[in-house]
Amino acid sequence: MIGFTLRRLGQGLLVLAVMSALVFVGVYAIGNPVELLVNPQADDAERARATAALGLDKPLATQFATFALRALQGDLGRSFVYNVPAIQLILDKLPATLELAVVAMVIAIAIGIPLGLVAGLKPDSWVGRSIMAGSILGFSLPTFWVGLVLIMVFSVKLGWLPPNGRGETTLLFGMVPVSFLTLDGLKHLAMPATNLALFKLSLLVRLTRGGTREALLQDYVKYARAKGLTPARVIGVHVLKNILIPIVTVIGLELGSVIAYAVVTESIFAWPGSGKLLIDSINQLDRPVIVAYLLVTVAIFVTINFVVDILYSFLDPRVRLAAAPAH
Amino acid sequence: MKVPAALADPAAGTAQPLHAQGPWRRFASEFAESRLAMAGLALLVAIVLVAIAAPIVSPQNPYDLAQLDVMDSKLPPGEHASSTGRTYWLGTDDQGRDMLSGIFYGLRISLIVGASSTVMALLIGLTLGLTAAYFGGWVDTLVMRIADIQLSFPAILIALVLLALMGQGAGKIVAALVTVQWAYYARTVRSAALVERQKEYIEAARGLALSQPRIVFRHLLPNCLPPLILVATVQVAHAISLEATLSFLGLGLPITEPSLGLLIANGFQYLLSGTYWISFYPGVALLATIVSINLVADQLRDVLNPRLRK
Questions:
Q1: What value, to the nearest 5°, has the Cα angle with vertex B21 and ends B236 and B45?
Q2: b/e map B219-241, b = 16+ CB within 10 Å
Q3: Which of A64, A179, B125, B235 is the 20 to 30 A CA-CA neighbour of A212?
Q4: B39 vs A: CB within 8 A
């Protein structure tokens, strides 16, 4: 178990190192930020001064070495646009993104698993069929367009929910601002979180339905029924327990994907999170912020994958044994 | 001619005549069992035809500035043109462009980008996956490790990074979509090929001393195709949706080649003032395209899955 954990940890760190090198070299290749920051009428001397001040006149290898050394100390450079440390900018915006992602995931779980269970227990009834038809729709609907339709209906036509922003926030544990504890915040959160949840909800419906249908054919279910257990107990305890292992894994892995797709939802609802910051930074060629966002996101991903791997091998020892040679 | 032979075969029983129809006929009849899938297929065919024939069926060439009338800007659906009296069935955008024509042309661009990136990703993934499976060893480890790492990140994140690095353009977005997709094919074809290469017909082909490329492409590949066809169908829908998303974020196609995503993005700024149709109808077209592909893919999944075959 320790060997497995260390090997996975090493792989994760390697991915992080390779990604940071790729991202740095790649970002270096986009246009010259000096052009955007310096007054267009500036002469060459002023341009050179700005280039030197940003450290852009040094060779690429030197720049990367400086970057890597500083990155290890938690310094990912200063934003060209805001002139504050890039990492601080990201960390300031990250709670908003994480709140959105977690609430979306909670919605997806709270609705997706029960619906999937119903569809799996009654696959041929009209309820089961409509749930599945709904999940095809949920898979097919482009997230950003659903966001627009939500705004169109609930903000423009009905005027119930605000179309943008985060609303009133309160401090959780005295340090992290969150929206879900105030009524105004909840109103602002409702549409973006639903929007972001839709795709994962459909995924969970399908996964739960498939798992339920397979579990119902197993001998332990027949045995539980033969013992005379109530249907509620057979389903609630025996079936649910067995289908939850793969579902928990998928939920863990999908949390990362929700954070990534928050880029789209945040752009639509002007949710002040890290995803919107990324899009703004790409448009403004704010290299340090792009690099910082990507590294923080990659780090979150590597961590999630690592935790899920460990958790899964804990729940199902066969994985740990099989993973000893190649994957 | 084959039917009497199948009937004469005493082992044929009642389940066999289906197979006697030949694989394509059987495939078609099994596919047609679902009315929903047939409706999806019909819709898809209609969409593709409209996209191909866009210059003929569109009431207006939406990108010929001489045909636009600024007086007609942001007219709601069903209004008439001020000069010609023609009806704008889906309204007009801020420049007086007929939305219906804009959607037909946008469909064309969305479908071309989606299909071409899928075909390229399929060819690259197929070659790498087959090579990895057939040769094994370090080639296999290298290719599959890269695929694994890539697949552990969501497609949109990789595409965003690539477009942030490369900049905008039709060629660049296709390149980004190919990069995002190849790993799915490589993984699918590899796992299919690993199963197939154990089978006797491959051993027989080796025993006949056929050349390696011939074994790989004439014997191994055709037997790996069913799962690939399925993945490709699903991926076309993903590619179209991803392109639309990226274009919506302003990182996809340039304004000179407006796909459905860009049309939707263009309408977004007018949405809060109640001018909904500029965003809404291109979205409906996008949705219809993706739903029809997914309906077809869903039925393909059942038909191509030997475990569910009756």
A1: 30
A2: bbbeebebbbebbbbbbbbbbbb
A3: B235
A4: no
Closest by Cα among B36, B62, B177 to B110: B177
Q: Residues 140 to 169 of A: which have CB under 8 A from any B CB?
A: 140-145, 148-149, 151-152, 155-156, 163
A145 contacts B264? CB cut-off 8 A = yes
Decide: helix, strand or coil at residue A251.
Answer: helix
Question: Residue B104 above 50 pLDDT?
Answer: yes
pLDDT at residue B118 is higher than 80: yes
SS3 call for A78 = strand
Residue contacts between A and B (CB atoms, under 8 Å): 104
Task: Count other Cβ atoms within 10 Å, centred on residue B200.
Answer: 8
The predicted complex's ipTM stands at: 0.77
Considering only CA atoms, which of A296, A211, A278, A216 is closest in space to residue A251?
Answer: A211
Q: How far is B163 from chain A (nearest CA, A)?
A: 9
Q: Report d(CA A235, CA A232) in Å as an integer.
A: 5
pLDDT bucket at A38, cuts 50 / 70 / 90: low
Q: Does B156 touch chain A (CB under 8 A)?
A: yes
Residue B153 has its nearest CB partner, among A149, A268, A301, at A301
B245 touches chain A (CB under 8 A): yes
Calculate the alpha carbon distances from A103 to A170, A203, A238, A255, A317 in Å. 16, 16, 28, 11, 31
Report how far residue B144's alpha carbon sits from residue B150's, in angstroms, rounded to the nearest whole number.
Answer: 10
* Residue B230 one-letter amino acid: L
Nearest chain B Cα to A155, which residue?
A: B272
Per-residue model confidence as pLDDT tens digits over A167-195 = 777 777 666 777 777 777 788 888 999 99
pLDDT digits (tens, 9 = 90+) for B162-202: 887 777 778 888 999 999 899 999 999 998 888 888 888 88
Task: Check: CB of residue A266 under 8 Å from CB of residue A93.
Answer: no
Task: Assess B137–A contact: CB distance below 8 Å, yes or no.
Answer: no
**Amino acid at the residue A204:** L
> What are the chain B neighbours of A154 within 8 Å (beta carbons)?
none
Beta bridge partners of B80: B87
Residue B307 pLDDT grade (very low, low, confident, very high; cuts 50, 70, 90): low
Chain A residues lying within 8 Å of B249, measured CB to CB:
144, 263-264, 267, 279
For the cut 60, the answer to whether the pLDDT of residue A80 exceeds it is: yes
Write phi, then psi, for A170 (nearest 5 degrees). -120, 160
User: What are the CA-CA distances from residue B43 to residues A93, A189, B38, B114, B169 (Å)?
Assistant: 43, 36, 9, 17, 30
Chain A contact for B297, CB < 8 A? no
Contacts of B272 in chain A (CB under 8 A): 151, 155-156, 163
Q: Does residue B310 carry a pLDDT above 50?
A: no
Best mutation target among B43, B44, B161 (most A Cβ atoms within 10 Å) is B161
Alpha helix locations (H) across A55-172?
60-72, 86-121, 126-140, 143-150
Chain A: residue nearest B140 by CA? A326
Q: What is d(CA B114, CA B181) in angstroms, rounded to the nearest whole number?
A: 11
